[in-house]
Specification:
- The structure is a single chain.
- The chain is an all-alpha fold.
- The protein folds into two domains: 57 residues, Homeodomain-like (Arc Repressor Mutant, subunit A), CATH 1.10.10.60; 145 residues, Tetracycline Repressor, domain 2 (Orthogonal Bundle), CATH 1.10.357.
- The protein is built from ten helices and no strands.
- The longest helix is centred in the middle third of the chain and has 26 residues.
- The radius of gyration is 20 Å and the shape is elongated.
């Protein structure tokens, strides 16, 4: 049986209200963007509601009209980041229809790492320095969506894969790939070294799924 992601008993970190008018949407988005800028520059220790309001150019009263605390702003920011990451991963899967298993695996690995690298500092702060972020329903949904995506790839690959327990094995591979993708993205290294690690991750994942390394022709074609 595949383990289920733990779900909180309630849904904390929810805005008091969502913006409806254009002006309020602009203020709402400005506060989310300000939160991201502060986290990138100063980390979670430098974040406060007063600082967010100041950077966003809104009054503190406006902030508290929408958000009860800074944690809720962080939660909305994380949800948006996860949603964009999944949109990109889904696009890669859709665009990879018909390509070989190795090329599809490599595309997914590269996109996953690219998602982290693009917002490296912000992702690191959110996922490594703020404990409650990993308990958010949006993050759990993101991880579940990644596993579902892997299951779709498994089904589409058909007989190309060699998994004794297909559904369970795919879940385990997806978890390992998810965590390895984060670590590769967080590394302080050169683009060439990071890509070499990404290719290595794709190769090991392919080996686990298929039972052997991709052949040299397939690797050269997808390089």
């Amino acid at each position: 049986m595949i383990p289920q992601e733990p779900q909180p008993a309630t849904a904390p970190y929810t805005p008091k209200k969502w913006p409806k008018q254009t002006r309020s949407k602009m203020s709402f988005d400005a506060m989310i963007s300000a939160c991201a800028r502060i986290l990138r520059k100063d980390g979670y220790e430098g974040l406060s509601t007063n600082r967010i309001a100041q950077v966003a150019g809104v009054g503190i009263g406006t902030l508290y009209d929408f958000f009860p605390d800074k944690e809720t702003i962080v939660a909305v920011l994380a949800e948006r980041l996860m949603a964009e990451s999944m949109r990109r991963m889904r696009r890669v899967v859709d665009e990879s229809e018909g390509v070989g298993p190795w090329e599809g695996m490599l595309r997914l690995a590269r996109q996953g790492v690219a998602n982290v690298v693009e917002e490296r500092k912000l992702c690191y702060v959110l996922l490594r320095q703020i404990p409650f972020v990993m308990t958010l329903p949006a993050v759990a949904a993101w991880q579940t969506a990644l596993v579902d995506l892997a299951q779709e790839v498994r089904v589409a690959s058909g007989d190309a894969l060699n998994l004794p327990m297909p559904k369970e094995d795919t879940w385990l591979i997806a978890q390992m790939m998810f965590n390895a993708t984060l670590e590769i993205g967080f590394l302080d290294t050169t683009p060439a070294e990071r890509d070499a690690l990404t290719v290595g991750l794709a190769r090991l994942t392919y080996r686990m799924a298929v039972g052997h390394d991709p052949d040299e022709v397939a690797m050269a074609k997808a390089a």
